[in-house]
Amino acid sequence: MMITIPALPTFVRELGDFWIIGASLSLGIALASASLGRFATNIPAGIMSERIGRKPIMIVGALIVAVFGSLSGVAPNAPTFWLFRLLMGVGSAMVITVANVVATDLSSVNNRGRVLGMMHGMQLVVGISTPALGGFLAEYVDIRAPFYISGGGTAVFALWAFLRLPETRPHIQGLSHAVGSIARRPKGTVSLLKDPSFFWICMLGFSTFYLRNGATTGLIPLYMDDILGMGPGDLGILFTVASVIHGVIIYPAGWASDIWGRKPLIVPTGIFVGIGVAAVPFMTEITPFVITFIILHAAIGWGGQAPTAYLGDIAPDGMRGASFGMYRTFGDLAGIIGPLIALGLADYVSYTAAFGSGALIWTVTIFMFWKVAKESAGKKRTHPQTMHQDAAPPARH
User: Fold this and answer.
1) Distance of CA 125 to CAs 164, 242, 244, Å?
2) Contact 354, 345 (CB under 8 A)
3) Is residue 110 part of a domain?
4) CATH value at residue 215
5) What pLDDT does 1 receive?
6) 175 or 13, which is more confident?
7) Cα separation of 106 and 393, whole Å?
8) Is 104 within a domain?
9) Chain centre distance of CA 208
10) 181-190 contacts: CB < 8 A, separation 24 or more?
11) Residue 43: exposed, middle, or buried by beta-carbon count in 10 A (0-12, 13-18, 19+)?
12) pLDDT at position 384, please?
């Protein structure tokens, strides 16, 4: 899906204004629409994965993304494009939420950082080439071509999942009737927030998605296009560099989080990310901007998998789907409001205010997570859910 990022600013501009909405706000609505679809689907998808299994949820979700990802390329106007993005969000929630649950099923607290690092690393192997390909297609073939390739690629994944993906939902011996009942009720999922560590990892998810949707996939491409005069091809190259950085760093970072714990990665890299985001609007020349961009993405890559590993550590047995659904719901709430606030500030105030608001929210959340959340991995783990989870997970069918 990364293939469409370099094309989005130009594509939305070519769709034209809708009423009095300009191109920047239209792009913000498009990004927010996908997040709205995910917001409405994360928790139901997680709960259904506990009821009927992981595999069918992921296959159906991939098919939805494939259909509406391709149709986005033929959208005749902005409202239709927003609708297709909304429906893509529904499908992507089904895939992404449950994919993290599957990785948690297949790991223990002692190797979860590496397992999730491997999963995200494999995703980034594809992400290494697709932004550059998307920028090339948008600039030299057709602005709509990246959307067709995105939908087709997701359809191939759905077929592979149907033929090869195993079912990993465990049969948990001795799971209490009370926990099993809670795991099947959306309202019961809210009880997870009573754990301060769970609440603040969800807030960290909120801040992460605020930055991702408001800055890295929203503001930064717009800033590169508007202030630095960089075209879709340049955008694609830089995002490819970012993917390479993530792909190289993420597995060693997972190993480090398994050995040292999750917080030693989340907190220091979080500080670097906050500084990097705040610094972007002051980089008005291409060279210092590129250096800042690379440092920012190196920090994001080093700490990127630790929050989901932390969540997998503390998710109660029988409620993994609900836990990841709640985490991603917090994130997608930020994905709804983040682009609207950030791109609105860029349009009507300044880029400094837009980037600065995201950096402030992020830094405050990092500080609160550091002060409140209990360590879930490494020798210094203190969270009660992980104190005795040294054994490997049971075999799956």
Assistant:
1) 20, 11, 8
2) yes
3) yes
4) 1.20.1250.20
5) 73
6) 13
7) 7
8) yes
9) 8
10) 182/319, 183/47, 183/50, 183/318, 183/319, 183/321, 183/322, 184/47, 184/50, 184/51, 185/47, 186/43, 186/44, 186/47, 188/322, 189/43, 189/46, 189/47, 189/319, 189/322, 189/323, 189/325, 189/326, 190/326
11) buried
12) 72
Q: Does the pLDDT of residue 324 top 60, yes or no? A: yes
Question: Which domain range does residue 194 map to?
Answer: 2-169+183-386
The encoded tokens of residue 249 equal: 């760093």
Residue 127 has pLDDT above 80, yes or no: no
Give me 199's structure tokens.
């609440």
Total tally of structural domains belonging to the chain: 1
**Does residue 264 lie within any of the structural domains?**
yes
Angle at 338 between CA 296 and CA 2, to 5 degrees: 60
Confidence of residue 180 (pLDDT cuts 50, 70, 90): very low
Instruction: Give the bridge partners for 21, in sequence order.
Output: 18
Average pLDDT, the chain: 84
Residue holding tokens 């600065």?
356
Q: Which residue has the higher pLDDT, 30 or 155?
A: 155
pLDDT at 183 over 50: no
Query: In this structure, is residue 395 part of a structural domain?
Result: no
Span 249-271, average pLDDT:
89
Residue 159 contacts residue 58 (beta carbons within 8 Å): no
The one-letter amino acid at 106: L
CA gap 17, 14 in Å, rounded: 9
SS3 18: strand
